[in-house]
Amino acid sequence: MQTAFHMSLPCQSVRETSSFYTNIGASLGRSTQNWIDVNLYGHQVTFIKSGKFSFNSPNYVFEGKMLPSFHFGIILDTKTWGEIYKKLREQKLDLVKESTFLEGKPGEHQSFFVKDPNDYLIEFKSFKNADDTFKK
Question: 28, 70, 106, 117: which could form a disulfide with 135 (CB 3.0–4.6 Å)?
Answer without folding.
Answer: 106
